[in-house]
Amino acid sequence: MKVKIKEWHAVATWRWDMPEDEVCGICRVDFDGCCPNCKYPGDDCPLIVGKCHHSFHLHCILSWINQESAKGLCPMCRQKFEVAA
Ligand SMILES: [Zn+2]
Ligand SMILES: [Zn+2]
Ligand SMILES: [Zn+2]
Description:
binds zinc ion, cullin family protein binding, single chain, alpha+beta, RING-box_E3_Ubiquitin_Ligase, Herpes Virus-1, about 15% helix, two-stranded antiparallel sheet
C-alpha cells in the first residue's frame, strides 16, 4: 500500500501563539509544577485556560485579575480574560 504524506505540513506547522507553551505566563513556573502559593501541584492548584488560549495556574490568574491595574485583561495578550468553556 502506498501512502503519500503530502498534506502533512499544513497541519503540523499550526500552533498556538504561545512563545513558551509549558509555563504559566504569570509565575513562569511550568505546568508540571504549582504556583508560588502552593506546595503541591495537582488538583489543589489547577490550571485554567482562557478564550485567548493562554493558560495559567488558577491562583495566579485570580490574583492577577484582582489587581486594579489588570482591568480583567489577560497578562499575555491584553484581551479580556474569559475562561474557555
Ligand atoms: Zn502560575
Ligand atoms: Zn496554587
Ligand atoms: Zn491571552
